[in-house]
Specification:
By secondary structure, the chain is of the alpha+beta class. It contains 18 helices and five strands.
């Protein structure tokens, strides 16, 4: 990459004023612009020294598995050598566009900023020696030589400060932009997966395939979470903390997470291999593995988990299951799996509103009779049901005489027209009682 030499003073940010002042000192010492030519013969040497120093002192370069990291480092060293020669040859301080471009590339590679800044500090040492040798050769008298050596040392410091400032500001800005773009993609994926999609839509299929959501032999489940104090979910920071905690919990596992916030709930699509091939045994249920991991979140977070599903087409249903499971969660039972909910509880949960809106004619008399006896009617029915319709055993459990229990059952039959000694009728009565209790 070539460095644009047509820099104008007005393009240089105020933060680089110290670097311009040092160049002015070098010009008054007659080092600039003569140093530009004096440095030409030793460019290759300083390039090699700097490359070796960076790789030896900054482990991130040698441990990176990205094959582009070292070639990018070598190109960037060439750019810095060319830029220093240009400045020492009388060029104006510019905006370090080549540094900003390199910062964007490093951000896209997820290469740590601190490693690049450490490399710049290594460069300061190498450039100081390179510039000092040139200054000594150009300064005829010893006094001028001391001034020149001091000035080039200041130049190396200010140059490193300038490029570090440019690198940091651009890296942070680009990292933020990448995070926002990544967040937009995650949000779009989450909406597609949970809202349902048309399988004939080529764009959607391509997006899901690129994100790995159309791979075979995968299991999927949906997790929804919220703070035990629901009002806290109005805080974006609280939702983000929950999302980070769950994502971090699965970071070192084979379970993949896609997180986002929907309707004041933190929502996750979880996926993992159901089996490696058609010849291997299936893995443990994904929902079971997820539940075990999510118990570490602490008492302040409530979680609902859907059942396992074999493809992304079932995720809208999985979202309904996870949301229903969350409604059963409490401080004493923080993590709830939909597949482990009792059928009776699910029936009451889904049908209570319908029963209360259009109740059978006998319900009013039944509820009124139970209220007048402080709940004894329903307690008696539950005792009979728990005793498998054995009135004698139910009476012992209630601490009552069997005739008392028989009398209550007769009064219930008279008020409702249903015989609580029949399984079908007692089931109907107990379901009605649970619907009214919700």
């Amino acid at each position: 990459m070539t460095v644009n030499s047509s820099h104008r003073r007005s393009e240089s940010p105020p933060a680089f004023e110290a670097l311009r002042q040092v160049l002015g000192q070098l010009a008054r010492a007659a080092i600039v612009p003569r140093a530009g030519a004096a440095l030409a013969g030793s460019e290759n040497v300083v390039r090699g020294e700097l490359r070796d120093a960076v790789i030896a002192e900054v482990p991130a370069f040698s441990t990176s598995h990205n094959p582009q990291v070292i070639p990018a480092l070598e190109r960037h060293i060439d750019e810095h050598v060319s830029e220093i020669r240009r400045l020492m040859g009388g060029g104006e301080v510019g905006d370090f566009a080549f540094v900003r471009l390199h910062a964007r590339q490093r951000a896209e590679q997820r290469f740590p900023l601190e490693a690049t800044l450490h490399a710049y500090r290594c460069g300061q040492k190498a450039f100081s020696h390179w510039l000092r040798d040139a200054a000594v050769s150009l300064a005829a008298r010893s006094r001028r030589r001391e001034q020149a050596v001091s000035a080039v040392a200041d130049f190396a410091i200010e140059y490193t400060n300038a490029v570090s400032t440019a690198m940091t500001s651009e890296y942070v800005a680009h990292t933020r932009a990448l995070a926002e773009a990544d967040g937009d993609l995650r949000k779009e994926l989450l909406e597609i997966l949970l809202g349902g999609y048309d399988e004939s839509d080529g764009r959607v299929a391509q997006l899901l395939r690129r994100a790995g959501f159309l791979e075979q032999r995968q299991s999927y489940c949906v997790v929804v979470a919220q703070s035990a104090n629901a009002q806290e979910m109005e805080s974006r920071e609280r939702a983000q903390r929950i999302a980070r905690a769950v994502t971090d919990e699965f970071a070192g596992t084979s379970i993949r997470t896609l997180a986002g916030q929907r309707a004041h709930l933190v929502t996750f699509v979880m996926s993992a291999a159901r089996r490696q091939s058609g010849w291997t045994a299936p893995q443990a249920a994904l929902a079971d593995r997820v539940e075990a991991a999510l118990r570490v979140l602490g008492p302040a977070v409530l979680v609902g988990i859907s059942a396992d599903h074999p493809s992304t087409a079932f995720l809208p249903r999985a979202l309904q299951e996870a949301t229903s499971a969350l409604e059963f969660a409490s401080v004493t039972r923080r993590v709830v799996q939909f597949s482990r909910l009792p059928i009776r509880a699910l029936l009451v949960h889904r049908g209570a509103d319908f029963v209360r809106s259009t109740p059978p004619p006998w319900v009013a008399a039944f509820v009124d009779a139970d209220a007048k006896q402080d709940g004894e009617i329903v307690r008696t029915l539950r005792a009979v049901a728990d005793a498998d319709m054995n009135v004698q055993q139910a009476a012992r459990a209630l601490g009552k005489h069997p005739n008392t229990v028989y009398g209550r059952l007769q009064r219930i039959a008279g008020a409702t027209g249903l015989d609580p000694r029949r399984y079908r009728d007692i089931t109907e009565l107990l379901l009605a009682a649970e619907c009214w209790r919700r």
